[in-house]
Amino acid sequence: MKGIVFTEFLDLVEDKFGLEMVDKIIQQSQLESNGIYTSVGTYKFSEMLQLLQHLSENTNISIDDLLLVYAEHFFSVLETSYPGLIATYNDPIEMLASIENHIHIEVRKIYPDAELPTFEVVNKTDNSLIMIYKSSRAMHHFGLGLMNKTFEHFNSTATIVLEKIKEDGTEVKFIINKN
Ligand code: HEM
Question: What ipTM describes this predicted complex?
Answer without folding.
Answer: 0.94
